[in-house]
């Protein structure tokens, strides 16, 4: 911050999301990550004369699902446009996209704001388009072109300039990735290039009563959330510094720019002046029919949408008393969240037990295999049986975890936990008389710990826990620790009174 100045960063985002279809947007070529260069091409995606595109219905439906999940309005009539520009990886010299009539518009997404509370980010538009190919610069002295990606279906999402901090941009992008995976419309793998981010950044600078705005810089093709955050932070500072050095560095006088992010140097670098819409010479594609949607069809798609991750997280916190951190871990994977809801069946007591079992050793075991809990043990009825056994005191918590891990290590899709508990002699004894006898035995064998509980202020708190552990050991782990604790506390109180 420069003395005497106040600044406000203004960010709008363009996000490209690769849709999870089997084939490309306008031809039948398969989409396959890592395939041999130029092996997934045909006359249509190569732009050869006489070839005609045919729209991929699955891509359009996936786009509408995503747009609806972002609270967008869906156009009753939308068309395809040619966006003309030359680049080596664009064989047709134009990209089939949507210009003035996008399929989705006027939506919004809410995020957890850096300043606290929630913040609404408006969605200006969501439109479907084909991707270009990929230029490769691995061979010294030349560039190579791989056209396998040409024609890949992309949903481009454009926000209003509502984002004011790099962290809020980070939250928006990560939330959008979770939503895409939840909906099943994209793998949203950053490593495979399924999501690319292009923040448009400028800064409002106030000095005295005067307000200035710097030119807009668009940082191109960021492929990680960290890069989004770092690029916005750097670019905001750079623009203020450039304005301080030259007050003519303002919107309307200095040109808007496209810049790239150099992760090694942690800085943006100038690429070229930023294009405007008229530079692309948009016009309707004569080879593709417009698309019309009915209200009934849109509502049918809407009715099939799952509960959004953030809504689900907040419900688990408010309705079942989970901590926000635990709820976030559960909803991070839709399969795990579905399993959780099915197993607890609306029971608040079961929710706490289920959280403990799912997020403990079970999650660690699944993570070690690079899997989710729900893929290792997907049967909700099995989970419910085990959770009820622990909650009802049939087995104790440590025995419940032991049974769960044994089932998961055996890759069992269906298991009878009650029978397992009987086979392993883990059913808790509910006979209070038997547990009282074990307590008497432990008190006789551990006179020192009993004396600590009675008269040693430093050890009085720890001694009952030690004695409980000894009772569990004597019982072979089948005593009810809650009842044992109550019996020990009563006996100590009785001895103190005597």
Output the radius of gyration: 31 Å
N- and C-termini, Cα separation:
72 Å
Query: How many structural domains does the protein architecture include?
Result: 3
Instruction: Indicate the structural class.
Output: alpha+beta
Largest sheet: 10 strands, mixed
What is the percent of helical residues?
Answer: 40-55%
Query: What's the pLDDT, averaged over the residues?
Result: 93
What oligomerization state is this entry in?
single chain
Overview of the molecule:
With 498 residues, the chain is of the alpha+beta class. The protein folds into three domains: 6-291, no CATH class; 307-423, no CATH class; 432-497, Arc Repressor Mutant, subunit A (Orthogonal Bundle), CATH 1.10.10. Helix content is 40%, strand content 19%. The chain is built from 17 helices and 17 strands. The strands form four sheets. Strands 1, 2, 6, 7, 10, 11, 12, 13, 14 and 15 form a ten-stranded mixed beta sheet that branches. A three-stranded antiparallel beta sheet has the order 5-4-16, with no helix packed on it. Strand 14 (257-262) and strand 15 form a beta hairpin. Helix 9 (361-368) runs parallel beside helix 12 and helix 15 (447-455) runs antiparallel to helix 16 (462-474). The mean pLDDT is 93.
């Amino acid at each position: 911050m420069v003395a005497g100045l106040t600044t406000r960063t203004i960010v709008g985002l363009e996000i490209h999301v690769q849709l999870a279809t089997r084939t490309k947007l306008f031809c039948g070529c398969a989409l396959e990550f890592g395939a041999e260069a130029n092996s997934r091409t045909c006359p249509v995606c190569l732009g050869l004369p006489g070839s005609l595109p045919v729209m991929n219905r699955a891509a359009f439906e996936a786009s509408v699902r995503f747009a609806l999940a972002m609270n967008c309005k869906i156009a009753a009539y939308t068309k395809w446009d040619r966006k003309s520009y030359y680049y080596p990886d664009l064989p047709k010299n134009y990209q089939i996209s949507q210009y003035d009539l996008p399929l989705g518009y006027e939506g919004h997404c809410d995020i957890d704001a850096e300043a606290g509370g929630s913040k609404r980010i408006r969605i200006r538009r969501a439109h479907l388009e084909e991707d270009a190919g990929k230029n490769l610069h691995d061979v010294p002295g030349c560039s190579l072109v791989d056209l396998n990606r040409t024609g890949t279906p992309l949903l481009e999402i454009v926000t209003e300039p509502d984002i004011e901090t790099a962290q809020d941009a980070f939250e928006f992008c990560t939330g959008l990735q979770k939503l895409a995976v939840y909906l099943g419309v994209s793998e949203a793998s950053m490593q495979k290039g399924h999501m690319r981010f292009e923040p448009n950044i400028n800064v409002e600078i106030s000095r005295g009563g005067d307000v200035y705005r710097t030119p807009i810089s668009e940082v191109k093709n960021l492929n990680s959330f960290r890069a989004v955050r770092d690029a916005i932070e750097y670019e905001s500072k750079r623009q203020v510094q450039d304005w301080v050095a030259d007050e003519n560095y303002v919107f309307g006088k200095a040109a808007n720019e496209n810049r790239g992010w150099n992760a090694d140097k942690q800085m943006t670098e100038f690429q070229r002046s930023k294009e405007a819409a008229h530079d692309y010479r948009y016009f309707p594609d004569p080879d593709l029919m417009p698309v019309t949607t009915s209200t009934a069809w849109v509502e049918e798609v809407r009715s099939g949408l799952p509960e959004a991750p953030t809504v689900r997280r907040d419900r688990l916190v408010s309705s079942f008393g989970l901590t926000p951190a635990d709820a976030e871990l559960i909803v991070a994977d839709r399969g795990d969240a579905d399993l959780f809801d099915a197993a607890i069946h609306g029971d608040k007591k079961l929710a706490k037990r289920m959280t403990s079992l799912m997020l403990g050793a079970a999650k660690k075991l699944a993570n070690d295999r690079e899997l989710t809990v729900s893929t290792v043990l997907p049967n909700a009825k099995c989970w419910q049986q085990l959770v009820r056994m622990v909650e009802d005191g049939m087995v104790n918590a440590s025995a419940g975890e032991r049974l769960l891990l044994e089932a998961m290590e055996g890759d069992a899709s269906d298991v009878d936990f009650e029978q397992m508990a009987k086979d392993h002699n883990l059913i808790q004894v509910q006979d209070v008389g038997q547990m009282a006898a074990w307590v008497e035995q432990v008190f006789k064998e551990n006179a020192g710990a009993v004396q600590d509980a009675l008269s040693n202020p430093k050890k009085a708190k720890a001694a009952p826990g030690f004695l409980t552990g000894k009772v569990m050991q004597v019982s072979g782990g089948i005593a009810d620790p809650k009842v044992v604790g109550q019996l020990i506390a009563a006996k100590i109180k009785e001895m103190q009174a005597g």
